Amino acid sequence: MLKTDNDIDIINELGKVNSETSAKEVFKQYMDDEHLSRISKIKHSEVLKKIADAIVLCNPSKIFINTGSSDDRQFIKNLALAGKEESPLAMDGHTIHYDLAQEQGRVIDRTYYIANPEDLVSSLANRMDRPTALEEVRSNMTDIMKDMTMIVGFYMRGPVGSPVSNPALEITSSNYVAHSAELLYRNAYADFDKEVETLGHFFTNIHSQGLNRTQDLPDARVFMDRKYRTTYAWKCTYAGNTLLLKKGNHRFAVDKAVYENLGNELSEHMFITGIHGPNDRVTWFAGAAPSGCGKTTTAMAGNVFIGDDLAQMWIADDGSIRSVNPECGIFGIVEDVNLEGDPLLMKVLRQPGHEVIWSNVLIDENKIPHWVGNNEDHPGKGFNFQGEWYKGKTDDEGKPIPLSHPNSRCTLKSDSLENYSPEAENPEGALTRVFTYSGRDADTMPPVWVAKDPYAGGVIGACIVSAATATEVGATGIKRAPWANAPFIPGSLGDYMDAQFKFFGNDKIKKDYAPVMAGLNYFLTEKARGGESSRLLGEKKDVKVWLSWLERYAHNEIGYISTPIGNLPKYKDLQLLFKQIIDKEYSKDLYTKQFSLYLENIINRIELQKKAYAKEPGIPQTLFDILDKQEKALLALKDVHGSIVTPDILIN
Q: Has 58 been annotated as catalytic?
């Protein structure tokens, strides 16, 4: 547990509501009879004081206590439309939201952990001392909701009754943020007191968009107070900066797993999906991939699906690993979402009957959304994230402005998808057997490989490499992306890595439930394997085969080729699965290109990881031992067979 000895709780210092009685006096001052009646159903004194502190600080003109009823959800949506935070589209239930043109992703340069000098904070993050943060919150959030309505929502990050779910307050003046919360999280107004009492904690999120002006963006801030599990955000609207139930609270959940439940719980940036095996058997997978690296596509490739972004997991009493999704909706990137690769998602996006919030796509004159990579005919003009748009339009630097922003999104409830599983609401979680890690790797690793043991599996996760994506403002180039979770790890990477090894190597996990830990890579190019084109060496739909092979592997029903980096599929097995799963012929030549080991690339990748982790304090020696062992074996292979080793050589 992070200590809070003599530290100031910023929201309480500014609100100064120190008793339940004082909180109720604040409510009487700001709420009408209806909302006084609603707040009276909440009895937990600490929850009441947090809400009252936020009211005193932000000074709204009205308070709306959201019970999660259908009437309340519609009221919030109507407010978003009336306030122009959203606009209606041609398809019933669909709306469009635009973030400011300069705020099309997480403002990582203006995001801070509130930390004392002695606090360990991730080397990838910004930090601010508590006294300075206190003055920033005071000067920016005092009266920030004047003449606005504050919406207070009570949510569970995970199914009600699950041991790893987290209760959370969402307090905001943005109707778009409140509307998004209703699609993405479980409104738990009726159960909130009980869950806070049972679990012993709750998270608090306080946000206001202010006047929502471009000139205010330099002053936008996102603060995360780990010690009091409270987030503050102002003068921003992009959901990644404002709906801090998501990645802000994910950070708090990571802290809880690493520093309170070490070895027994994890909080991961992972999808959860189920793959059918023989006789309609369902095997549950969880998988990490940075944004823009195929995570939603992989989640949708499952026969049944629980989530596409986050996973809370724990070791159950029966010795199995169980997973739940903190969310019940999808906030997904739409670039390259199309009928070929994402048929079920496209059905929701292009057919009536579902509620969808679009953000930052192009809207044509008929109020129909369009985006890059949807493989549909595009209009020559419309309105998008930067205003009026026409084909060939350029920005101030002469660069073409795309049809839609690369970080354009769709927000929808998960149960809109045909393959969504009722298992998602099971508080006992999905019994999870396979864990995958993937990045955006054009030239090095094969499409799928399996770690030889849980510790080597943890190393696969630690060594994800990706391209920077549009989810982070100003980020470019190639970067390391450990566990696809590094931006959301509040403490040291060493502590987090130790938690991974202790969890997956825990003796409580029974042999029959031992985790299969694998790497996936969908981005290998023809050029990297001797061709001329930069096209992918394979197709998007091939992911179904890689997952099906892993499903059979988890049940010891399929063979493999042992290599220094892990176990690879055999050609005959893949040839059969390609035909069975996606009715596709799979040639031996393609297999050889995909699964040959290009040793110099792999060795260079290992060296990159070793050098990078050598700069991080407290990294477990296990990582270096495993990488050294792999490198030594790869060098021995190279001495005998040269720099390219085919699967046939490995078999023989």
A: no
